[in-house]
Design a protein that fits this description.
The chain contains two helices and three strands; from the N terminus they run ββαβα. The protein has helices at residues 34-47, 64-72, and strands spanning 2-7, 21-26, 53-54. It has a three-stranded antiparallel sheet, with helices on one face. The two termini are 23 Å apart.
């Protein structure tokens, strides 16, 4: 799955708050479902990087507890 982060560069759009990030996800092969896109986006958010990212996700269970456990194992970029 290809994940790209595009910061919102229009400060007036969010009342002067720090720029929000918009994530674009694209399934390159495999299961194209909303839960797969969610996991990839959460991984990208956790890494706090704006560079394109390639994520491979294959879970037997896409339940909330499983997704949280996967994302919690990822260390934010320092």
């Amino acid at each position: 799955m290809d994940v790209r982060c595009e910061p919102n560069l229009n400060p007036s759009a969010n009342g002067g708050a720090p720029p929000e990030r918009s994530y674009a996800t694209l399934v390159l092969f495999g299961r194209d479902a909303a839960d797969t896109h969610l996991v990839a986006r959460l991984v990208a958010e956790r890494l706090q990087d704006t560079r394109p990212l390639l994520v491979a996700v294959s879970l037997q269970d896409y339940g909330l507890a499983t997704v949280r456990a996967v994302v919690d194992k990822i260390s934010p970029r320092q």
